[in-house]
Design a protein that fits this description.
Blueprint lengths: L3 E15 L6 H8 L6 E15 L3 E5 L6 H9 L6 E6 L3 E4 L12 H11 L4 H15 L14 H12 L6 E5 L7 H17 L2 E5 L3 H7 L2 E6 L2 E6 L1 H15 L8 E2 L4 E8 L5 E3 L3 E10 L3 E11 L2 E6 L8 E3 L3 E10 L6 E11 L7 E12 L25
Parallel strand pairs: 3-7, 3-8, 5-6, 6-7, 12-19
Antiparallel strand pairs: 1-2, 1-4, 8-9, 10-19, 11-13, 13-17, 14-15, 14-16, 14-18, 18-19
C-alpha cells in the first residue's frame, strides 16, 4: 500500500473570466445571442502531478499568479479540478482564510464556540479547550467584547488559536504568519516545530523562503501554472530567488537630487557574474561624475526583501577626495558574503558632499546581486556562529 497523504495526478484548473460586463438587460440579451462567448479561459494550473508522503512538512512556492494558492484550494476541496484527480488520505484542516464563519456582532467568547462547532467540536469539548484557546491568543481581557471591535491582528490570533485545536491528520497553511505581531508569529513558529515532531502532514504555501527552509522537508515550485521543480527546500528556494532576481527591473524611479551636477554614473561589480557563494569577495565600483569642483564621498545601501542589511561609506576610512569639474572618480568597496544569507540583494547609490549629512545624490536599485549561501541559516544576516554538541551519556562511541 502506497504511503502517501496527498497525491495530485495530472491536475489542471481552468477559470472562466467574463469578457464583457452586462450593464443592462438589453446588453445581457444581446451578448447572450452573440456567437462570440462573453468570457475567456484562464488556465491557472496545467497538468501538475506530485505526491506528499505521510508526516512530511511540504512547501509550495511561486510568484503571485503562479497557481500555488489555487493548488492549495484544490487540496482543501474548495475547488474541483478541471482535469485530473486529487487524492487525500486522512482528515484535513485548511488554515487558508482564518476567521471564516466568525460573526462580528457576537463576542469573542461566543465566536470561539461558534467556530469550534464548525470544526466538529461539541460545546462540552469547547468548554474544556476554551481557557487554552484564550491564553494562546492572549485575549483574556477582550473575550466579552464584540468581534467587530477587534483589530485584524486580534481576530487572526483568535482564529488561529481555535484552528490548531483541530485533530486533523493533514494541515494546509497559507501565509498564516503574514498577519499578526512578531511575538505571536514566534508562537506560531513554536507550534510548527511541535507539529513537525508529531508526525502530522503539513503543507505550507509561502513567499517567505526562510520559513520554507526552516520548516519544510521538501518543497515544490510552481511557475505559470506548471510544476517546475520538486526538491530540497534549499534547491527550490534557490531557483525561486533566481527567478525573482532575473525578472527584477532595476530603475531610477526612486532617484532624487539636491544638486544634479554630481552623480553616480554607474555602479558595477568587479566581474561579470552577479551570483556569489558563501565567503566570497565582492567588489562594487562606483563611478562618480561632476560638473563642478567639490569634495565628495560616496555611500551604499544594501537591501534584502525591502529591509536595509547594511550601509557603507568611506568617510571614516579615508580622506574625502576633491573632484574637479567635468571629471570622474571611481571608488571601490570590497566585502565578503560570509555575513549574508541566501537571497537577492539590491544596492542603492549615494553621494555626500564633505561636511554635509544630507546626500546631494541618491538613486535606488542601481545594482543587484545574488548570494547562494552554503552555510545554512535564514534572515538577512549570517552570524557565522559555530555549532557544537556533547554526548550527555559521556560515551565516545
Amino acid at each position: 500500500m502506497e504511503d502517501f497523504a496527498i497525491k495530485v495526478e495530472k491536475v489542471s484548473k481552468v477559470f472562466k473570466l467574463p469578457r464583457e460586463k452586462n450593464s443592462s438587460i438589453k446588453s445581457a440579451f444581446v451578448n447572450f445571442y452573440k456567437s462570440k462567448k462573453g468570457y475567456e479561459l484562464q488556465k491557472a494550473l496545467n497538468n501538475v502531478s506530485f505526491e506528499i508522503k505521510k508526516g512530511e512538512f511540504f512547501g509550495i512556492v511561486g510568484r503571485n499568479g503562479s497557481g500555488k494558492s489555487t493548488m492549495l484550494k484544490l487540496l482543501a476541496g474548495i475547488y474541483t479540478p478541471s482535469k485530473g484527480e486529487v487524492h487525500v488520505r486522512g482528515s484535513l484542516t485548511p488554515f487558508i482564510e482564518l476567521g471564516v464563519g466568525f460573526n462580528p456582532e457576537l463576542t469573542g467568547r461566543e465566536n470561539v464556540f461558534l467556530n469550534g462547532s464548525l470544526l466538529g467540536f461539541n460545546r462540552r469539548e469547547m468548554k474544556l479547550m476554551y481557557n487554552d484557546i484564550v491564553e494562546f491568543a492572549e485575549l483574556e481581557r477582550f473575550m466579552d467584547q464584540k468581534l467587530k471591535n477587534y483589530s485584524s491582528g486580534m481576530q487572526v490570533r483568535l482564529a488561529f488559536s481555535i484552528a490548531i485545536r483541530a485533530q486533523s491528520d493533514i494541515l494546509l497553511i497559507d501565509e498564516v504568519l503574514a498577519v499578526g505581531d512578531s511575538a505571536f508569529q514566534r508562537k506560531c513558529f513554536d507550534y510548527f516545530e511541535d507539529i513537525k515532531k508529531s508526525g502530522k502532514t503539513i503543507v505550507l504555501v509561502s513567499h517567505d523562503m526562510d520559513s520554507i527552509k526552516r520548516f519544510c522537508t521538501r518543497a515544490a515550485l510552481i511557475s505559470n501554472g506548471r510544476l517546475e521543480l520538486i526538491g530540497s527546500p534549499a534547491q527550490v528556494a534557490d531557483l525561486y530567488e533566481k527567478q525573482n532576481a532575473s525578472d527584477k527591473k532595476l530603475s531610477d524611479r526612486d532617484e532624487w537630487y539636491i544638486n544634479r551636477g554630481t552623480i553616480i554614473k554607474t555602479i558595477e561589480l568587479n566581474n561579470d557574474k552577479a551570483k556569489f557563494s558563501s565567503d566570497e569577495k565582492i567588489q562594487i565600483k562606483l563611478l562618480i561624475n561632476s560638473d563642478s569642483e567639490r569634495i565628495v564621498f560616496p555611500g551604499l545601501n544594501i537591501f534584502k526583501d525591502g529591509q536595509l542589511v547594511s550601509g557603507a561609506t568611506p568617510q571614516f576610512q579615508m580622506e574625502p577626495i576633491m573632484i574637479s569639474k567635468d571629471s570622474s572618480i571611481t571608488y571601490t568597496y570590497e566585502f565578503t558574503t560570509k555575513s549574508l544569507t541566501q537571497g537577492d540583494y539590491l544596492v542603492d547609490g549615494i553621494v555626500y558632499e564633505s561636511g554635509k549629512d544630507t546626500p546631494i545624490f541618491y538613486r535606488s536599485q542601481m545594482l543587484n546581486f545574488y548570494v547562494s549561501s552554503l552555510e545554512g541559516g535564514w534572515g538577512s544576516n549570517n552570524l557565522n556562529g559555530k555549532w557544537s554538541a556533547s554526548n550527555p551519556s559521556g560515551d565516545d562511541d
